[in-house]
Amino acid sequence: MNLAPVESSVTRVTLSPRLVSELGDPHSTLRAATQRSGAVVIIRAGGEVDASNEHTWRGLVAEAAAVATAPGPFIVDINGLDFMGCCAFAILAAESECCRARGIALRVVSCDPGVARVIQACNLGSELPLHPTIDTALGTSVG
User: Where do the DSSP E strands lie in the chain?
Assistant: First the structure.
């Protein structure tokens, strides 16, 4: 991943103790790493997002988005997810609206054609712009 155009310092984003506990639970099906470089915040998600961990996904997305600063972007890399329920897309779409109000672009990274079909079928293309890699998401102009 090339963060050089953004800034050279990459740091982990500190999440709330509750969220760290939920993500660290041995029975959790959701894994995530969150990092920041300048105005850019990136979540790399793995495992599954469904109704059983919807509240954890919502918390993760909200906490990471809160750290992002304009112009961002706030990037959610879901290439590591094996399953993503409709609830996860709805959470991303709602957070995208909140980010946009703050001058931050939320961008989704996935190579899965199924993700593209869901985004298209739900008419979420403007809320959830899809990129094949983090580098392409970083290279997209803000605005």
Answer: 11-12, 30-37, 40-49, 74-84, 106-109, 130-131
Instruction: List C-alpha distances in Å: 128 to 29, 38, 103, 105, 122.
Output: 23, 22, 15, 9, 10
Residue 40 CA: distances (Å) to CA of 2, 65, 87, 88: 12, 10, 25, 21
pLDDT in tens, 101-138: 999 999 999 999 999 999 999 999 999 999 999 999 99
Tokens representing 134 are 């983090």
Phi-psi region of 55 (alpha: psi -120 to 50; beta: other; left: phi over 0): alpha
Bridge partners for 47 per DSSP: 30, 81
On whether the pTM is more than 0.70, the answer is: yes
**Tokens linked to 84:** 């993503």
The contacts of residue 21 (CB under 8 Å, 6+ apart) are: none
Residues 6 or more apart whose Cβ sits within 8 Å of residue 99: 65, 68, 72, 74, 105, 106
Q: Which residue has the tokens 């909200």?
A: 62
The full set of domain ranges for the chain reads 28-138
C-alpha atoms less than 13 angstroms from C-alpha of 135 in its C-beta half-sphere? 3
- The CATH class, in words, for 28-138 is alpha beta
